[in-house]
């Protein structure tokens, strides 16, 4: 069993444990490479079927190709695809691109608040009708008590403080200093009633591991990660007003792997193109303490 096999086995184990231990969970799908690998692992864990709803928080500022990729794959794999949004902020134009608020406030509103209220069922949710490919109001307003997320410890400083099973309070707030120990693959899954749980099956994967696994498994990925001929590609995907591509001529997965192995990005953060990280002092901890992914 090689290193990728071990990572895969651990992640599949975490997914199955989460499904067994928690009553009503969902999986966040940001449409990026990490959460798509997580989705692939879920298909493996449950023998081709994903019994967990996929949730996407739609800010309405995603690159259009991301949304098309999401919907095409949801139809192809017959996923329970749900999205939520902060419709009030969007209707009133209270966003950074409209010049009304700063980037951090925009993330808190369109992502953190939308996520919290989508998970709780307090705001409207929309689910894809697999017969038509259109989204309709989701009649299931039951609260999601846990959410599976594709974060990695190496991706960003605050994420290195996470656990595989990470408790949040009733408001989804994160107490970094109150995380359960996880020694020798022993995980705490019995939490007090009302505790919201974030589950992180990819915690020990690296950026290189993700791309090597994508290559090995031939996982379909959005072409935004590849150079389209202008010497640039996205290394991390987000809202288009706050996400910049990196200089790169990698046109396929193999070339991205070689690029990462070469050390080209050794001293450049993976999320260096995400402007909100810089506005948050170079990290995401302020946002993540308040419920951000």
From TrEMBL:
The keyword Metal-binding does not apply. It holds the Pfam family PAPS_reduct. GO terms for molecular function: ATP binding; sulfate adenylyltransferase (ATP) activity. Residues 272-293 are annotated as: Disordered. The keyword Chloroplast does not apply. Its EC number is 2.7.7.4. It is an enzyme of class 2 (transferase). Keywords: ATP-binding, Nucleotide-binding, Nucleotidyltransferase, Transferase. Residues 272-281 have a biased composition (Basic and acidic residues). It comes from the Bacteria. Residues 25-245 form the Phosphoadenosine phosphosulphate reductase domain. GO terms for biological process: sulfate assimilation. Belongs to the PAPS reductase family. CysD subfamily. This is Sulfate adenylyltransferase subunit 2. It comes from Pseudobacteroides cellulosolvens ATCC 35603 = DSM 2933. The lineage of its organism: Bacteria, Bacillati, Bacillota, Clostridia, Eubacteriales.
